[in-house]
Amino acid sequence: MSDQWIFLNGEFVRKEDAKISVYDHGFLYGDGIFEGIRVYNGNIFRMKEHMDRLYESGRSILLNMPYSQKELTELVIKTVEKNGLRDAYIRLVVSRGPGDLGLDPYKCPNANVVIIVEPLAIFPKQLYETGIDIVTVPTRRNRPDVLSPKVKSLNYLNNILVKIEAHLANVSEALMLNDQGYVAEGSADNVFIYKKGKLLTPPGYIGALEGITRNAIIDIAKELGYDVAEEPFTRHDVYTAEEVFLTGTAAEVIAVVKVDGRVIGDGVPGEHTSHLLKQFRKKVIEEGEKVNLPDENLHVS
Ligand code: PMP
Q1: What top-level class of enzyme does the UniProt entry assign (predicted)?
Q2: C-alpha 185 to ligand 1 mean position (Å)
Q3: What is the ipTM of this complex?
């Protein structure tokens, strides 16, 4: 039996016992929302921003949240404490809940709330040293007026198709463009380019999720005096950038050294990317929502 405790609809259950109905509309239709959050040294990074994004997603799709934002925030903290992990990845899922086989969400009165806390599957250290190769793919980003990428919904097929195309091209990640050909984001991360003293990332309206890591990097870059802007750019700008990097809760900041066969800069992680990663890692252990953990070295799983 695993030592991992899952929060499921009001109680803590063992991983093996954490089960929900096959009539759940999250399962049947991808009807629901989620967040991926990270705990660094007993501090939950940008907890409020993650919870704000979750509740905004819920409001946007008229999902009845069974807990207030404050209550759910406390439940997330409790789940981290229950699992006794100082460094962890939190997956918070709120699905529409069980209904019948029709689409109608009004027949799903009880949302399912799941909080999973796991030890971090850290990205291989070597990738931070070498950087990664990526490609752009034919799959376009959902248009914001169709299914807004700002809603962090359980419907990730758009992103999954991108991941499949990345695999088919023998790389681990890919960039998607929006319907006008502007660069939007990766399958599960945001993109930045650095060129001629300017740091750019696509604005939300292009079709990028407003990533918490992305926003933290914008803050850090501003504090460091970078000329940083949210501005649309094309593949040409990526190919000719001096540095390219991706950001996300799991990946943090990862250098991209080749895009569609074009070597970026010198083909190794650039000084600005490395500097921003260093500053980011400094920030994550300094700030955050404190979790009460009894013992510095206690790791349950
Ligand atoms: N874009 C998409 C589509 C994502 O799924 C994620 C991961 N949540 C990101 C960007 C990065 O966002 P964050 O920094 O909040 O993890």
Answers
A1: transferase
A2: 9
A3: 0.99
